[in-house]
Amino acid sequence: MNKSHDGEIHVCQDGPRDAPALLLIHGTAASAREWEPMVPLLTDKHRVIRVDLLGCGQSAKPDGASYAVPDQASRAGAVLDRLGVEHATVVGHSSGATVATALAEQRPDLVTALVIINFGPTMAAYIGQDAAIDPRQWPNLTDDQLRQAVASGFAPGYQIPQPFLDQVREMDLHVFAATSQAVSAYLNERGLPQRLARLGKPLLVIFGEQDLRWRPESAAEYRAVPGATIEMLPGLGHSPNLEDPPRTAVPLLAFTENHH
């Protein structure tokens, strides 16, 4: 655990401590555990750092905390500072991409390169159908009902693994709602390509072509960022890091090899 002024932030570290740092940031309804299938593929050449954002996973869930994107980014940056990390490639899956971007905006000295996995450039690209869930029913949902609620997070027909369902079941619905609003506000203020183009950081965008939440064609809008690389993954959906970790790791490792 790392302490912040809002409460403790849960941190996982794998790989050699002297290797280039790779910070993995999870999406809205998940935690650092969503990256577990990919970690063994990355640790040969990286110090892999994962955080549970405040309100998620094993991190604190304080009353009255801000879940604004810049505040979550600031906490992630403070974690890297406490770990003695001076430079890192930052990877954001889904809404974690906004936290990664905000961290690069705040700490251009710290963030050397960015990787975005399946997140749209603006809210205009959002095509998801959010399931309306009565918070009173949440604790009693069956696994099948949970799978239906999060199905758009994966390619059609993908068998959602139990560990991911466990993460969703543990989710705080207040944090989920606050985070969803915060992400929309961040994107509506300025789209990610516009933000990233100003930063001049190397960018890789990985996108499963069967994403049911963000229009896959919208990945092309990241070409507005000079030098951006876009990798489309056929047959995969919104969560390629879970659906096919080896295929997702290939472009990620090729990118980090060139942008330590």
Explain this structure.
The protein is α/β, with parallel strands linked by helices. It has a single domain, classed as Rossmann fold, CATH 3.40.50. It contains nine helices and nine strands. It has helices spanning 39-42, 69-82, 96-106, 143-149, 162-169, 173-189, 192-199, 240-243, 245-258, and strands at 2-4, 7-9, 11-14, 21-25, 47-51, 88-93, 111-117, 203-208, 229-233. The strands form two sheets. It has a seven-stranded mixed beta sheet, with helices on both faces. A two-stranded antiparallel ribbon has the order 1-2. Helix 2 (69-82) packs across helix 3 and helix 3 (96-106) runs parallel beside helix 7. 44% of the residues are buried. The model has no long low-confidence stretch (mean pLDDT 93).
Would you give the CATH topology? Answer: Rossmann fold
How many DSSP E strands? 9
Radius of gyration: 17 Å
> In one word, what is the shape?
globular
Strand content: 15-25%
The CATH level-2 architecture is identified as 3-Layer(aba) Sandwich
Average pLDDT confidence is 93
Which sequence of SSEs, written as H and E, runs from N to C?
EEEEHEHEHEHHHHEEHH
Total individual domains? 1
From the structure provided, what is the oligomeric state, counting identical versus distinct chains?
Answer: single chain
Helix and strand content put the structural class at: alpha/beta
Helix percentage: 25-40%
What is the CATH domain class?
A: Alpha Beta
**Counting H and I runs of at least 4 residues, what is the number of helices?**
9
Biggest beta sheet attributes: 7 strands, mixed
Gap between N and C termini: 26 Å
Unreliably modeled segments: none
Question: Mind telling me the CATH superfamily name?
Answer: Alpha/Beta hydrolase fold, catalytic domain
